[in-house]
Amino acid sequence: MTLIQQKGGAGKSTIAVNLAAVSGESNPPVSSDPDAPCPVVAAGIDPQGSLEGWARKVPEESLPFDYLVTKGRLGEIPKLLEDPDVLRVYVDTPGFVDLDPEAEIDDPDPLGSGPAGEAMREVLELTDLALVPIVPVETLTHSPAEFTIERVLRPRNIPFRVVINNWDSGADRTKADLEEMRTWCEDRGYPYMRQAVRRYKLHAKAPDSGLTVIQYPESGTALRGREDFYKLALAVEGVL
């Protein structure tokens, strides 16, 4: 499963890590051996290794998934998928830093020829489902999401779902912004997850705090934050 969006900051890493966390919590290693592999893996192909920076801060005994950071190296994710113990792999991808500005508008492969583009190509060939995050009101995430779907996913016939992320439910009490975002997807024929991920400071602070959604200190906000990801994970499994 690949988190993909041309624009950075739409929430790819947050969704990848927290889906891996709730999935890993539900799918622990079969063996009690502490060195036994986890059935769930979060993988990052970003050359900057942002997923690694987050996962390394989580205490090992609290991390319910294994993680792999390729930093753009080829061959590591295909090898991972050959492991019979691995059930789910959530791949966090960078923004399209290698986007080819000379590519024709109808070019089915605008990813360019640099290392990041090659790493993206490798992952896309293996993707069973792509999740494309988009943020209500923040229109700068909308066109890049459309570009990602129309220029990268659809030409490759990759199944996808839009994930409405960082929805400010407190400010949008009538759900007008949420419904506008759903209508945006429907008008374009984009399937989307009904479960939106709500905006909470806990999510924004989690990478520096070394926490995933299942380790948040108990509070009403933490409960609602976990609920979003549990429901999203169930919806994802329903698609697969």
From TrEMBL:
Domain CobQ/CobB/MinD/ParA nucleotide binding span(s) in chain numbering: 3-212
Superkingdom of source: Bacteria
InterPro entries, sorted: CobQ/CobB/MinD/ParA_Nub-bd_dom, P-loop_NTPase
One Pfam family named in its UniProt record: CbiA
Protein name per UniProt: CobQ/CobB/MinD/ParA nucleotide binding domain-containing protein
Species name: Streptomyces carminius
